[in-house]
Amino acid sequence: LYHEKNECYSTWQKIQNMRVVIIGNGVAGISAAIEIRKQSDLEITIISDETEYFFSRTALMYVFMGHLKFEHTQPYPNTFWADNRIKLIKTTVTKIKSAENKIELQDGTALSYHYLVLAMGSKPNFLNWPGQNLDGVTGLYHKKDLEYLIQKTHSIENAVVIGGGLIGIEMAEMLRSKGKQVTFLVREASFWNAVLSENESKIIENHIRAHGVDLQLNTELSHIIGAEKVKAIITNQQKKITCQLVGLAVGVSPNIGLLKDTEIKYKRGILVNDFLQTNIENVFAIGDCAELTTPQPGRRPIEAVWYTAKMMGQTVAKTICSQPEVYKPGIWFNSAKFFDIEYQTYGNVPAVLEPSQTEFLWQKKQQSIRLVYNRHSGVFQGVNALGIRIKQDFFEKAIKEKQTITQILTHIETANFDPEFFKNRLREVKNSYPL
Ligand SMILES: Cc1cc2nc3c(=O)[nH]c(=O)nc-3n(C[C@H](O)[C@H](O)[C@H](O)COP(=O)(O)OP(=O)(O)OC[C@H]3O[C@@H](n4cnc5c(N)ncnc54)[C@H](O)[C@@H]3O)c2cc1C
Fold first, then answer.
1. Is there an atom of ligand 1 within 6 Å of 288 CB?
2. What is the pLDDT of residues 285-307, one digit of tens each?
3. Ligand 1 atom nearest residue 27's Cα
């Protein structure tokens, strides 16, 4: 009966010629569109002001460093969109009129919708520093930031990067790859210490310095000086650092400016329920701009990462195509690369352990594995790996099956991702644990 009802519903949608409008052609918006097309004949329009075609934001640094051409960041041929009857419009959406089921575009034209999906991503934080609008100051988020960095880097010698997170270290690596002198200011006492433990931060700090970056911990930007162009920055310790480029990488915020004067509710991000639906029934929000009102246990309301944006897109498509699906991101994972050191995390691995947690740590030079488990039951809760590539399936299964630390360590060597190419360090990890 449910199946029949769905079939009737999708026929009805077709007859009605229902239109889904998606604002944003990042991974969230594109994943939603592709999944909607797989499931239905709904009319799909995607509007974005950044680029005509979808590209992988995470690969921007590799374009800068010359490992890829920009075209290589586009996973679909340009014909894909027309072939799949997905209409692309490159412009800015300037207004949402949810009471009329309409949006307004930059040139004043209105576009009506039956379903609206907000997938507007993030924007880099500029924290009102004096001098932040000088020529030579940039964030790294959009394609235009990449173009700006490429164009500027030719004529500079010294750069200062502000902000000890993933984008900050990417910028430092990018600029070092072009032989620039880079000073890297990190406010915290150790690198990325909201996520990494002290010993993990230390490994990365040593690695950053080994790549010729002048890493300055416990140091903040006070202001930027120059006349039109950047000449130097002043730190909170009143130290002057001469530079011609300042990279600002102090985090991102949901891009929700468009929601002002609408009835759609937001806090830091656009508030959505488990179905990624806003307070307006036919308006949904996904990806970096969405804030879950009731995130699943162990998950945060806003998670600005690639795979969650993709999952949200695929999930919301099901709901729009009349197979309502709750967004279930599962076990937290993330990965990154700090110059040459790969980082992976699965499960609940806080920088500072919770009272009920304890850990087993293995470390050798630039490689480390930190296994966190419950100190009473021994049940494994998560892993951080630096410099050793591990298999996601192994650790996901261990967490789902509530395996103990002892169970895991008896066969941890099978979690090595590249047994043929790399020495299996996990065997050493196992041997160092007193089983
Ligand atoms: C340099 C960099 C490296 C990263 N590396 C990683 C990584 O290694 N791993 C990881 O998990 N995550 C990484 N991230 C984060 C990841 O890229 C984001 O979480 C993801 O791209 C978010 O996708 P999204 O679809 O929500 O938004 P976005 O990709 O931001 O797409 C939103 C689009 O909507 C457009 N838009 C917004 N408002 C309007 C409007 N009013 N009208 C028209 N268009 C509009 C924007 O211009 C943008 O093109 C990285 C991010 C950056 C910037």
1. yes
2. 999 999 999 999 889 999 999 99
3. 25
